[in-house]
Structure formats: C-alpha cells, structure tokens
Amino acid sequence: MGRDLSARTLTLGLMQGFMSKTIAWRVSDQPTPYLDAVAQMEARVAMIAGGRAKDLVWLLEHPPLYTAGTSAKREDLLDGARFPVFETGRGGQFTYHGPGQRVGYVMMDLRQRANDVRRFVFDLEEWLIRTLARFNVRGERREGRIGIWVASPSGNEEKIAALGIRVRRGVSFHGISLNVDPELEHFSGIVPCGINEHGVTSLSKLGINVMMPEVDMALRGAFEEVFAVRTTSERPRAKAKA
Predict the structure, then answer these.
(1) Rounded to whole angstroms, what are the CA distances from 238 to 34, 40, 97, 108, 235?
(2) DSSP code per residue over 121-150
(3) Residue 239 reports pLDDT greater than 80
(4) pLDDT tier at 207 (50, 70, 90 boundaries)?
(5) 193 a catalytic residue
(6) Residue 234's pLDDT is what?
(7) What is the rounded distance in angstroms from the CA atom of residue 173 to the CA atom of residue 43?
(8) Which of 103, 193, 215, 226 is the catalytic position?
(9) What is the largest CA-CA distance in the chain?
(10) Distance CA 138, CA 20 (A)
C-alpha cells in the first residue's frame, strides 16, 4: 500500500462530523477461541450492516495459533503441526496469535467514513503508532511491508504489530495485533506476513514491562484520538451454559 496520502487523508477522520459518533468498546479477560471470535465478529458485522448494532472494537487474546490470510503461501508455514492453523478471510499472509499479544478486532461501518478503505488502513496504522508512542516507543510504517516496525537495540528493524482486515457489506472486521509480551519463539513456525528478512519484537523485548490493562488504556485513548470518536464500554458476551 502506498503512503503518499493527501492532506485530506492525514486529518485522520477529523472531518465529516465523526466526533459525534459513539463506538462500543469490549475487553475479554480470558483467551478466546479463534472460531468463536470469528463467529461473533460475523454476527456483529451483519447487525452493524443492518443498522441494528453499534460499531465495535473488541480487545482479546487467543490461545496459541496460526492464521492464514488470503495471500498466504503454503511454504511460509514452516511447522504446521505446532499449533492449530486457521484459514481466514482477512487480507495478508501467515501470522501468529497467542497469550501476551493484544488483538484488536475493529468492526466499523465504513459507509459512514466515505467507504475509504485506504484511509481506514492508514488510520489503523496510526492507532498503533500513537499507542506505542504512549510508551515512548517509535513505531513506523515501511513501504512494501505491512505492519508497524521499530528499531531494535542492535539497529535492526523488527515488527511489533500486524494488521489485516476484511470488509463485508461495507463493514470492516478482523483488525490488528500488538506484541506486548508473547512467546516470540512461537513466530518461528511461520514466515510472519511473508517477510523473513526481519524479525519480530515486543514491548517486553524492548524493555517496556507493562500490564495488559495499561496497554488497553493506551489503545483506547489513541483510538479515540485517531478516529475522533467516543467509546462506551460493552460487556463481553456471556458463554452459554452446557
């Protein structure tokens, strides 16, 4: 994706009256099975598209697993027996999810944002960059490399956050992931996002030792700032009793 954006795009959603929009904000404290998360996202997207629910940002963690995006290459799955592998409709290639990584699923009606998917992806990147800045970490975009990158103490560039979205009936889902303190060795079972020239890192590896609630607060503040919205807390869906 190119980064030569117009001044209109760089306003990051401050135009067209978006400040009055309210978005639901949900945080799940327990690991959420991947297929359960996908089912909940798809149900919410249908409700948003039909005007029956608010847009939603859902923060969660998954058990260890790999996901394959629509551009995934089978040769980039180096150890398919290590963790469950799920094919998913989001853009991108292979990625890892697991404990210590904050996943943010963003279900947003892009029809209310000029159907501008390019700007939406730019804003998701900006959300991650501003979240990292709250911990004095400089995150950057790189042409031709999806995600957010930081300079390691050795000077090498390493990936600290990933993103991949899907749009259905004008509503986005899937979203972003930020490495807080995951087991980075688990990424060795794949070529993350098809890029093997650079490694992965985390806030913890960079010496930033923070608890997940602190990260959640930073994510929420940065999201409201970038997307110029208000967020209201929504309880996670209760699990059905057996």
Answers:
(1) 16, 12, 23, 22, 8
(2) HHHHHHHHHHHHHTTT---EEETTEEEEEE
(3) no
(4) very high
(5) yes
(6) 94
(7) 11
(8) 193
(9) 54
(10) 30
